Amino acid sequence: MGPKQISVERFSITSAKPFSDVVKVLEASVGHPNVNTFMNDVASAKSFTDLEKVINAVTGATGLMQFMKFDLGEIVRKERGDAAPHSLRYLIGNPLIMKQMLERSPDAGSYAPVTVLVDERPDGVRLSYDRMVSFLAPYENDEALRVARDLDAKIEALLTKAAG
Question: Global pTM?
């Protein structure tokens, strides 16, 4: 199989709120498991029911969890100082949602968990997300696309709430 063309659709919303306020709402809305403990608990689960309990225990009110956070702005601040714009990249998702997509379209594993970018710009704090449905559309699996649309709605609701 050769290269596949994927056209990505980006959802963005701009907030007039301070960066720290936007980040506070975003981070309060997702679970923050200790990743090492979480991975050990996943490996120790004896059944899918046990696995669901492990995952549901660490997702936030949105049903999502933070896998990682990268402070991209820290690199810029090393050169430009503390006045440089902030920029954070989050990997957010839910392994149970990922499983549903992977079962129908294995290529979904290239895109989950999803990336959320929160960065300061001259017009405000921008929250951006590349829609999962756009990544999976070329694979033409209706059920995977249904799951992707549901995930997109969750992420977009999260970003809209954080933008306030």
Answer: 0.93
